Amino acid sequence: MRVLVIGSGGREHALCWALSASSLTDTLYCAPGNAGIAREAECVPIAADDIPAIRAFARDKAIDLVVVGPEVPLVAGLVDRLNEDGIRAFGPTAAAARLEGSKGFTKDICAKYGIPTAAYGRFSDLGAARAYLKKVGAPIVVKADGLAAGKGVIMAENVEQADAALADMLEGNSFGDAGAEVVMEEWLQGEEASFFALTDGTDALALASAQDHKRVGDGDTGPNTGGMGAFSPAAIVDDAMTACVMDEIIHPTLKAMADMGCPYKGVLYAGLMITATGPKLIEYNVRFGDPECQVLMARLMSDLLPALVASADGGLKNLDLRWYEDAALTVVMAAKGYPGAYGKSTVIGGIDKAEEIEGVTVFHAGTAQKDGNIVATGGRVLNVTARAATIAEAQKKAYEAVDKINWPEGFCRRDIGWRAVGN
Fold it and tell me: Cα–Cα distance between 310 and 131 in angstroms, integer?
């Protein structure tokens, strides 16, 4: 098969890494890719949200499958346009991608179909939002309704913080159109987990479990980010919990989408809070998580390509996936200043030395090749990933590899996996 992956991050590098190992992959392209992806695929200089150019390239190269990595082109309707061209694509349509494109849309589905989630309110008017805040109090979570690159969530510990977040989004325009409406929801207590299921619109197949670390600082402190590291498996998501999540959250959501005339195909990523009364949905993402995808691909024993094709074609009912018993852990190396302002074009060395450690793969999340050097081009730049018999061993290997990378302008958390290893 001739395969085109869309995106330029660590998630897309992990997908290209897995797809390049498939015996069914004849030619692999990535648009636009990055310096690490160039080792696995032919990178083409087309932006991930340039839908006309992607369509033209897919037609010209007779692409058999387009794998859409990031959420922006999904919400913008890339899969719809490819389907119009008769090109098979992995991912949801624009109508189905509203599960991530609008947090309020998802919350309303939860309310209608009895899917367990936090109590909430939706507001576009600051006065009404403040009245709701006065009624329910704090702590409370304030979210921009639309896409905000993982940064539109404010964990307000008091009313003053919540009020400032509301004013910032609804009047200050800090998130543009994404913050024109806000969702305020109950601050849930429990342990977070990332749950992934492949779906073909009717059937769903649960993937391996994972947990990520959203806060920028050690001990889960500081602002939320797109993710500073992840590990798999997550002990809290055992077989019984998996069955519960599929029955109470995933399958009712698929029914809701089918009832609305926009069946969901692709990977459905449920951010969960495992509470004392069971799992509750925090939010949906309509693509593989980043950096969770990196640890999932490190543990996947089966060929990824047939699974993606089955999702796109409606053949998941008879598919199963095998996973390595080993654990995997990834540490995100980010540019100093992230998730705020950060410098770019800083030189990174030592990646080859890091990958000499057995079981270690360094996925590139924001890099380019310049004058013979690898340089940083984004906030989250590298995903140092290790597979080993236990999470503790994977953690040790990952940080051993981190310490071989020479990048003074970068930083990472030093406690990824702390819940699993108890440090």
Answer: 48
In terms of CATH, what superfamily is 327-421?
Phosphoribosylglycinamide synthetase, C-terminal domain (3.90.600.10)
0.85 exceeded by the pTM? Answer: yes
Per-domain boundaries in the chain: 2-91, 125-180, 191-318, 327-421
Query: How do beta strands 191-200 and 182-186 pair?
Result: unpaired
Euclidean distance between CA atoms 180 and 233, whole angstroms: 37
Q: Which residue has the tokens 């925090």?
A: 282
The two three-digit tokens of residue 2, written as one number: 């001739």
CB 395 within 8 A of CB 417: yes
Residue 188 near residue 153 (C-beta atoms within 8 A) = no
Contact between 324 and 386 (Cβ < 8 Å): no
Q: Check residue 249 and report its DSSP letter.
A: I
For helices 10-20 and 304-313, give the axis angle rounded to 10 degrees.
100
Angle at 55 between CA 54 and CA 59, to 5 degrees: 115
pLDDT in tens, 259-283: 999 999 999 999 999 999 999 999 9
H/E segment holding residue 141:
strand 140-144
2-91 topology per CATH: Rossmann fold (3.40.50)
For residue 139, is the peptide bond before it cis, meaning its omega torsion is within 30 degrees of 0? yes
Q: Which ranges in 33-186 belong to alpha helices (H)? A: 51-60, 71-75, 78-84, 98-101, 103-113, 126-136, 159-170
How many whole angstroms separate alpha carbon 178 and alpha carbon 369? 33
Q: Could you tell me which residues come within 8 angstroms of residue 86 by beta carbon, excluding any fewer than 6 positions away?
A: none
Q: Using N-to-C axis directions, what is the helix angle for 10-20 and 292-299, rounded to 10°?
A: 20
**CA dist., res. 230 & res. 214, Å (int):** 9
Q: How far apart are CA 1 and CA 418, in angstroms?
A: 41
- pLDDT tens profile 157-194: 999 999 999 988 888 777 878 778 889 999 999 998 99
Fold of 191-318: D-amino Acid Aminotransferase; Chain A, domain 1 (3.30.470)
Q: Which amino acid is at 47?
A: A
Q: Which two tokens stand for residue 376?
A: 């940083």
> Per residue in 256-289, is it b (16+ CB within 10 Å) or e — as a string?
bbeeeebbbbbbbbbbbbbeeeebbbbbbbbbbb
Q: Give the residue ranges of DSSP H helices in 1-102.
A: 10-20, 51-60, 71-75, 78-84, 98-101
